[in-house]
Amino acid sequence: MTDTTLRRWQDIAPADATKLDLSKDLTITAPLNEEGERCPWPWEPQLRASEPIGQFHCGYCGAMVLAGMPHIDYGDEPAEVKP
Ligand SMILES: [Zn+2]
């Protein structure tokens, strides 16, 4: 039997994730950007909570994310989302 239990990226603290690359490590879930690509390192938005920048492009996958909020997963969203 093979245990294929996925770890959720949200359950990993940024301090424990410094060596991770979720584009390669498929044992951990990852949010998707608008192109449907896995974000290699989705912890940046929550680390920038103290910066008054609001929306910015994730430096790892380019997705539009919000400072202080968990990385947005565009894979979960329908194609047309009204604000
Ligand atoms: Zn990202």
Describe this structure as you would to a colleague.
With 83 residues, the protein is mostly loops. It has one domain (1-83). The protein is built from one helix and two strands. It has one helix spanning 44-47, and strands at 55-57, 64-66. A two-stranded antiparallel sheet has the order 1-2. It is globular and about 40 Å long. The structure holds zinc ion. Residues 33, 39, 42, 58, 60-61, 63, 71 line the site of zinc ion (ZN).
Question: Strand percentage, roughly?
Answer: 5-15%
Radius of gyration: 13 Å
What compounds are bound to the protein?
A: zinc ion
The unreliable regions are none
Helix share of residues? Answer: under 10%
Q: What do the pLDDT scores average to?
A: 90
Helical run tally: 1
Number of domains: 1
| Physical arrangement of strands within the biggest beta sheet | 1-2
| Structural class determined from secondary elements | little secondary structure
Q: Distance N terminus to C terminus?
A: 45 Å
Anisotropy-based shape? globular
The major β-sheet equals: 2 strands, antiparallel
Strand and helix order: HEE
Number of strands: 2
What order do the helices and strands come in, and which of them pair?
Elements (H helix, E strand, L loop, with lengths): L43 H4 L7 E3 L6 E3 L17
The chain binds zinc ion (ZN).
Zinc ion binds next to loops.
